[in-house]
Amino acid sequence: MCTQIKKSSDYRSERRRYLLWLARHLPSESPLYREWPPSPRCLHETSYYLKKLYHKWRCHKYRLRFDQTARNRMREKVTASLLFRDRKSSYPKSVSHPFRGDYVRLRHNVKWKKIAAETGDQYVVFADIINKIARASGKCLQTLFVVSTSAMLVMDHRTLQIKYRIPATDIFRISLSPFMDDLAVFHVRSVSMAPSSLIKSMRDLS
After folding, report:
1. Is residue 156 a contact partner of residue 163, using CB atoms and an 8 Å limit?
2. Alpha-carbon distances of 123 from 128, 150, 166, rounded to whole Å
3. What are the structural domain ranges in the chain?
4. Tell me: domain 100-188, CATH 2.60.40, correct?
5. pLDDT in tens, 78-97
6. What is the pTM of this model?
7. Rounded CA gap, 76 and 173, in Å?
């Protein structure tokens, strides 16, 4: 009995010393910092849970520094990581670049606002001038590529004339190569199933 009490007392004393020491030697508050102070063998499990709690706390503290817009951007970065990490060679170089979405300030364009009001594409997820490969000739043509929450639009980058607009529900897959390039292929449901206006616009584009 005395031995058990002594062991229990030693354990409490060891735990107290460790916690006081740990409080003075906590690692960086950066969520990227992975190091963690060592612990006595009998407190490995305690150390494991303290490490998880501390990391969760510093991540929470880091997120509090950002407004809602910045938090949304962080979620986009996490989504991009889940999609492209270890799958796309050019992905690591893009991590440090903030995702702006609207790279041509389309949301501020008066003409676009009128177009968006008519088409229902007010919220722009992505907009930039890209090189589109023409199916007929194989040549690259500069065009304004816009993705809203409702559709994908290909527009004349000078006049903002809509060449064609494909509802988001008609896009069932996006393919990328695993290499260091910017190629993307959008898979649209069969033309035979598409509305006549879409068929005409796609033929005009060819």
Report:
1. yes
2. 15, 8, 15
3. 1-65, 100-188
4. no
5. 888 888 888 889 888 888 88
6. 0.62
7. 19
